[in-house]
Design goal:
Layout lengths: L17 H9 L4 E5 L2 E4 H17 L7 E5 L4 H12 L3 E4 L6 H11 L3 E5 L3 H9 L9 E5 L20 H4 L6 E4 H6 L16 E6 L9 E5 H14 L7 E3 L7 H4 L1 H7 L3 E3 L6 H11 L3 E4 L1 H8 L11 E5 L6 H8 L3 E9 L4 E5 L11 H8 L4 E2 L3 E7 L15 E7 L5 E2 L3 H7 L6 E9 L5 E6 L4 E3 L2 E3 L1 H9 L4 E11 L3 E10 L5 H9 L10 E4 L13 H9 L11
Parallel strand pairs: 1-11, 3-4, 3-5, 5-6, 6-7, 10-11, 10-12, 12-13, 13-14, 25-26
Antiparallel strand pairs: 1-2, 8-9, 9-19, 14-15, 15-16, 17-18, 18-20, 20-21, 22-23, 24-25
């Protein structure tokens, strides 16, 4: 069969952008976006994305240029997930909780040409861009207004192309136009720019900031296409779902469900900001069927004082950190069906999920919740997931006890870190694995469970303590709202567990320690408990453990524990 070879007919580059064309044809009359009093159909969304892409091209944005977006979950943010790459550019979503200095570093590192800015973040964006030194080209700003269709507030009749120096090097940082102006000026018949090769980059996402040095993760059209389709299959998403955006779209492009909702003709319910009350209100009002979020959102729902059981079940996919089984149990008692997935910025979405078995439904509720807290097995599109011993590099025993580093292999892995070949080589080694930095075990049934980040394992008196396991016990305490455990230096033990806790009831340190001592081996019990009103988090809901580790270092010296 040597005469059979790829041709231009059977080797077209894969890209998720084709989902939008199909959505306009198949789901054209179906609702695509709902935001406050604004509603769009898929024909509208398709047309607006083409117009925005056309205007970007007219402004000089081209193949391989980086265009950034700093916005909450508003319609423009959703449209730009398509419009920016349809212009040939690389989409760079920015974390809305970052400070001006960090945003400046990312904009300069990525050499971003343009930044779309939510009106509520305009001062932050201006402060970031103002940090560019003289003589260094800085990105131009486009303002996303609250009101869809709002008229521009700028007097110029035409926008200058990006190679016009006068506007870009003004001392004062101004906005070029509004997003709505950009859309209105665009061509509805624009032939969007298809990738020349499916390995061409489509997104640039900086790691979420649980460490102090985020890196720029670059993904290809091919990887995003594969992980998007894979996620829809794995979560069993049907046609025409109603999807509530409680997951920030800037977080790995909403775990690729931004493009996924176009593939299945879903309705995107956009929320600028939200609390538990907003979630329950939106679920009832719009008949929501699906939503995603970090465990912090589950916790928000579970601990809402006004929570009422839902009339219809809502599928909730959580990830980003292991969800405590007690939180899963409380959330499901309200009518949410919780699924647990595992992924990271480097894989663009969920690549390991807790595939549920029918026989598990007959187990006691706490046992079911414990099983759902496991990460699970690889999704269909991931080639392989395993856990390797840190020293030998061999696969660990499938006993649920032997720990090692979680490694991945598959088509949805990143191209690498932007301008950082050393970090890329450290993460994606010559043995063909992507090393995640997560510590896990494999149970006898083949299901994976994360035990910790490698840097979060606490070694006390020669014993390894999983902070995740201690946190799970803390979350089972009904007075605990949030919990995180880190290592605290100890002259005798080397390290001891230090718990940071926020409460929804009353308790003191002795109460918390006693509660843990009744449920954990002595060496795993926190020796220090610090109460906080709220634990510090990244914008994706991950607790900033590197902050807490610094706080633990600055606590007063611990008592002599040599007799414990």
């Amino acid at each position: 069969m040597n005469h059979l070879k790829p041709t231009s007919a059977n080797s077209c580059p894969l890209t998720p952008l084709t989902f939008l064309d199909r959505a306009a044809t198949v789901y054209g009359d179906c609702t695509s976006i709902v935001y406050n009093n604004t509603t769009f159909k898929w024909t509208h969304t398709h047309r607006r994305c083409l117009q925005a892409a056309s205007s970007l091209a007219a402004l000089g944005i081209g193949r391989g240029d980086v265009v950034s977006v700093l916005a909450f979950n508003v319609p423009a943010m959703y449209e730009l997930q398509f419009a920016v790459p349809m212009s040939g550019a690389v989409l760079n979503n920015l974390n809305t909780r970052l400070d001006a200095r960090t945003i400046f570093i990312m904009l300069r590192h990525s050499e971003s040409k343009m930044v779309f800015v939510d009106i509520h973040l305009q001062v932050l964006a201006q402060e970031a861009v103002a940090r560019f030194p003289p003589g260094i080209r800085r990105p131009v700003l486009v303002l996303i207004t609250d009101v869809v269709g709002a008229k521009g507030r700028f007097t110029e009749s035409a926008s200058p192309p990006l190679n016009t120096e006068s506007r870009m090097n003004d001392h004062d940082v101004e906005f070029l136009m509004t997003y709505e102006d950009l859309v209105k000026k665009g061509d509805t018949n624009f032939e969007w720019i298809r990738p020349l090769n499916e390995w061409d980059p489509i997104t640039l996402n900086y790691t979420s900031g649980t460490t102090s040095s985020p890196k720029g993760v670059v993904h290809s059209h091919r990887a995003i296409f594969i992980v998007t389709v894979d996620s829809l299959i794995d979560w069993s998403v049907p046609k025409n779902p109603v999807y509530l955006w409680t997951l920030p779209m800037f977080h790995s492009n909403g775990w690729s469900f931004t493009w996924g909702m176009a593939a299945v003709g879903g309705t995107n319910i956009c929320l600028h900001k939200f609390n538990a009350g907003d979630i329950f209100s939106a679920v009832v009002r719009h008949n929501v069927t699906h939503m995603c979020g970090a465990p912090v959102v589950l916790n928000m729902i579970a601990n809402s004082p006004n929570a009422k059981p839902l009339k219809n079940p809502v599928n909730f996919l959580t990830g980003g950190a292991p969800p405590p089984s007690a939180v899963v149990l409380r959330t499901e008692s309200l009518g949410f069906t919780v699924s647990h997935g595992y992924g990271m910025t480097e894989v663009a979405g969920v690549v390991v999920s807790c595939a549920w078995k029918e026989k598990w439904n007959r187990l006691p509720v706490m046992d079911r919740a414990g099983l759902k807290a496991r990460q699970g097995v690889r999704t269909l599109a991931l080639t392989e997931v395993n856990v390797l011993d840190h020293e030998s590099g061999l696969v660990v025993k499938h006993d649920g006890l032997t720990q090692g580093e979680i490694v991945l292999k598959g088509a949805c892995l990143m191209l690498g870190y932007l301008k950082d070949p050393r970090a890329t080589a450290t993460c994606m080694k010559e043995d063909g694995w992507l090393y995640t930095g997560d510590v896990g075990v494999i149970h006898p049934d083949g299901y994976l469970e994360i035990k910790d980040r490698s840097k979060d394992v606490i070694i006390t008196g020669g014993e390894n303590v999983s902070s995740v396991e201690v946190e799970s016990v803390l979350y089972s305490n009904p007075v605990v709202h949030e919990a995180a455990v880190v290592a605290r230096q100890d002259k005798f033990w080397g390290e001891t567990p230090c718990a940071f806790v926020s409460l929804i009831g009353k308790a003191n340190s002795e109460d918390i320690i006693k509660f843990c001592r009744e449920r954990l081996p002595h060496y795993m019990v926190p020796k220090t408990v610090v109460f906080m009103e709220e634990l510090p988090k990244t914008a994706t809901g991950k607790i900033k453990k590197f902050w807490l580790r610094d706080m633990a270092k600055n606590l007063s010296p611990p008592k002599d524990r040599s007799r414990i």
